[in-house]
Request: fold
Amino acid sequence: MSESPSKSSFTLIISCPDEVGIVAAICQFIAQRGGSLIESNQHTDVEQGWFYLRNVIDGQSLSIDENRFREEFAPLADKFSMEWYLRDNSVPQRVAIMASHSSHCLADLLHRWKSNELNCTIPCVISNHENLRSMVEWHGIPFHHVPVPKEDKSEAFEKTANIIERHQAETIVLARYMQIIPPAICSSYSGRLINIHHSFLPSFIGANPYQKAYDRGVKLIGATCHYVTEDLDEGPIIEQDVIRVSHSCDKDDMVRLGRDVERSALSRGLRYHLEDRVIVRGNKTVVFTP
Amino acid sequence: MSESPSKSSFTLIISCPDEVGIVAAICQFIAQRGGSLIESNQHTDVEQGWFYLRNVIDGQSLSIDENRFREEFAPLADKFSMEWYLRDNSVPQRVAIMASHSSHCLADLLHRWKSNELNCTIPCVISNHENLRSMVEWHGIPFHHVPVPKEDKSEAFEKTANIIERHQAETIVLARYMQIIPPAICSSYSGRLINIHHSFLPSFIGANPYQKAYDRGVKLIGATCHYVTEDLDEGPIIEQDVIRVSHSCDKDDMVRLGRDVERSALSRGLRYHLEDRVIVRGNKTVVFTP
Amino acid sequence: MSESPSKSSFTLIISCPDEVGIVAAICQFIAQRGGSLIESNQHTDVEQGWFYLRNVIDGQSLSIDENRFREEFAPLADKFSMEWYLRDNSVPQRVAIMASHSSHCLADLLHRWKSNELNCTIPCVISNHENLRSMVEWHGIPFHHVPVPKEDKSEAFEKTANIIERHQAETIVLARYMQIIPPAICSSYSGRLINIHHSFLPSFIGANPYQKAYDRGVKLIGATCHYVTEDLDEGPIIEQDVIRVSHSCDKDDMVRLGRDVERSALSRGLRYHLEDRVIVRGNKTVVFTP
Amino acid sequence: MSESPSKSSFTLIISCPDEVGIVAAICQFIAQRGGSLIESNQHTDVEQGWFYLRNVIDGQSLSIDENRFREEFAPLADKFSMEWYLRDNSVPQRVAIMASHSSHCLADLLHRWKSNELNCTIPCVISNHENLRSMVEWHGIPFHHVPVPKEDKSEAFEKTANIIERHQAETIVLARYMQIIPPAICSSYSGRLINIHHSFLPSFIGANPYQKAYDRGVKLIGATCHYVTEDLDEGPIIEQDVIRVSHSCDKDDMVRLGRDVERSALSRGLRYHLEDRVIVRGNKTVVFTP
Reply:
């Protein structure tokens, strides 16, 4: 499953109304251009009549280049009313990370990035606190401190948007950023703005989920990686994970244990996103896990 | 951990305000009567200043009998303002099971009971449907069909209460019973009325949790075993479990997969209850898992 | 994912050397005959250069019948050197179950079958003990008692083979059968003889795995569902599962806890097999989990 | 459960032959000195007739100091033939970490240490490679590069032993160190030398476990945190964890996925060790998990 980023490959993502002959048409198109399939995932939502496909194509097998592929594929895409894109996997995505005071998710992502686990570059980290600067800069990544004053946050978010734009980030990860993102950014980065919520959504929506979990006496706590929409904590879920707790855990223990599932859910969710395994439709996702 | 039911043993359960010397006093009391501890669990809720203890005592090591123990222990219990009881583990608890149309939880409990996994007798099964009669009777257990008409349920629940009383059930298990239990029964069987809810509470409270889970697009579904109180789905949680689902699961798949976690959460929860591992305080539980 | 057995559908299973154009050729073949894909799974083993496909085709969409499909598909299959078969999902597979003294796996399978979770019929249960007869017959399934004397087992296995043949079983499930199956049966039912081993293979191969696990002090125990080959405990693995144990578990506790993972691993493994999600190659499996 | 390291507390660890009255005697001893129990765990191995206890005592409640406690407790300990020790939790243990080329376990431990998750100091990191120096030094921890030449390793290990001694390390963690530790160090640090093995022991003992797991076609891979003894991969197990893999995982994917369970098993194992939750007896452990 692991397409080594150094090996040339393209990922073709398609979703469209289901119809007889779609797969045949797509695969014939690819085969006629010499394309060898490294990985292929399909899903048909029979109820909704909707078709989803992810094909990873060996780049060296293709007789045409990326742009030519797009040109020649367009008429076929139109015929089946496809939403689609082709990704060149040799070009790592640019991922801006936003963090607040907590280091655990950020440290985990930076380590995975440095270990070549994630096929992306990280052009910048933005935080409303200063405390993580040294860790970020040690990784050779620019750190931007953008305080977010309670009274007026608009200027801070304007500045934030500029930084992200300047760094040409395609995806934004909120690694426990803890600030509500303004609607403008949510819609600009629709399907590309990833959050980790520190509860097993839809349980304990909103602030202080660990306190709420402690008060309710649950026996498992969780974390949810999801795309951010204007509806707080209601966006499409990419990945979730849980961990067992007991009566002997106080709230601080839950916070500590929760960090482990936050890390794992976020890093898996981001990985799925970067490998184009996630297709959003409405408020739900198709996730072609390996 | 497994105290074989045939081997004579007593379980002493205590909860009280925390104080220096409680454990010493209790253990000295037991030791002075020759009592050998097979298993001992303690918990101190530092925040609440509350102490919890579960001691399993080898019956053959005790120099006094059960009643004498209770008599002699009472003054000590008073001194520390204990809530306490002593259980003779050679007397299996009497557990009435209530079920509706679905067989999976009931079949699982009956099989475990027949396999001597649960230290209880099952004096009766009550259902508002007829379809499970044969399965229950094959196990040699009386089956009572008590229909619950939508218009007026009071008579049905009066009848139900009579059956349970007649069978001298100490604990009631709702094995997917799907009817709201009237407050009178809830309070009579407080801490002894166990339900399995087919969601990871507090997510998807109320009816049709699998449909809600499907609509929300969660990546894990769960089940919750809890004591029933008058507040629907809000009682103290004993045990929870989850299972992974994907975009390829429709609602029926979730229902099917959910059965497995319903079974496991309910059977573990009941086991903990029958082994006196669960101590309720307020709306939360201490569960001394093995 | 759940193809309701009542709804007409066919599953096409293919494995062959990888080559450009295979998927296109297959899908074009299906599309030209009106075939609508309900589910499609593919895998390419890049290292081995081998291709695997599972397509579930809506039966009502096909313009030709099953036999015609086979005839017309054969030349294509030859061209790509395919190993392949087409399954009519409206014809449930015939599964003979063999059990010994333990009831838990058998009871679980029978309950799932009765609940329509498994798309199969169970023409018979064979056991070397008498104790499970009543349970099996209550389900309306013929029970055959075939004792296996230690001195000479050949006659017993001849009788067993006859019973299985007479009942035209396509698949045999060893639900904790605890006897070594003779090579002749292993090879006759290659890829169709499923065992549940009560350990996390390759740990604790051979007899008494729970005792060995207890002696080694492991913190997780497991179960392994695999196809049986002549090499004991070495056949292709279909599914595995684990459960946490602690120092407080004695060997009997491990046996009891292990039952739960034996049940879950076996029932999932059998389900995958019955849905033709498992393709064996060499000593390994491709399992297209839903 | 979380005893904040800043709050004064002592942990008393005892194991001895089981006898009536042990707990009473111990708890009376503590209570008579005003000691308030924050946490208490007991286990009786009935088969072996052996008793295990872990008591966490509130330091401020005690009327005597640490040394006096030890003096006064000694006669009681002798009477019951106890192996025992008392730990002052305000003095963090000194943990030396040894690593090789891989960064994931080391980075995880350093981050947890820096986040105050682990009650220890890390006086030094020793590695046979240079590549992790910068990461270690960024954390303000001395890094020692001790190459281990294939031809003669004795000098390297002598040097290693000196460094560890000089830094007065009480516990050594092998964070994927990948070299066999000589018997002298194993026995000097018996019960204080912790390794993470990259397989679910006893499966795939020895080198290249991920390759072996890939070749066998297992569906779960794991990691094992254990104390090192002279018998390679055979020491007492502290903690294990597993993660699901599929046919689509090649060996490199297994290596990558395995890192996550290596991290989690090692960090939990070390945490249990640092909180004196682990008692070794023979080749097995009692682990009082929270």
